[in-house]
Write a structure and sequence with these properties.
Elements lengths: L2 E3 L4 H6 L3 H16 L5 E2 L9 E6 L5 E8 L4 E9 L2
């Protein structure tokens, strides 16, 4: 299992999510705890990069950008967007 963390930049983005984004975000975060490599490579030309992206929400309204630190079993959320 991985620990999912936020920092001074991403936590305000999480705090600003509207109510209809909270359940989809929680589901995405739970997925990152167990299978963070299932996200898409952030850089298309670096498919094995630990920097990943994940679209979430019923209509794909949310985007997460995150970094996987396998040696620490940690996922750092870098960007949290909701466009819904």
């Amino acid at each position: 299992m991985y620990t999912v963390t936020t920092d001074g930049d991403s936590q305000p983005q999480v705090d600003a999510l509207p109510p209809d984004a909270l359940a989809p975000f929680a589901e995405a975060r739970a997925m990152l705890e167990v299978a963070p490599w299932n996200g898409d490579p952030y850089h298309r030309h670096k498919p094995d990069s630990p920097m990943r992206a994940l679209t979430f929400g019923p209509d794909g309204q949310g985007d997460l950008v995150y970094l996987i630190l396998d040696d620490q079993r940690r996922v750092d959320l870098l960007t949290v967007l909701w466009l819904g």
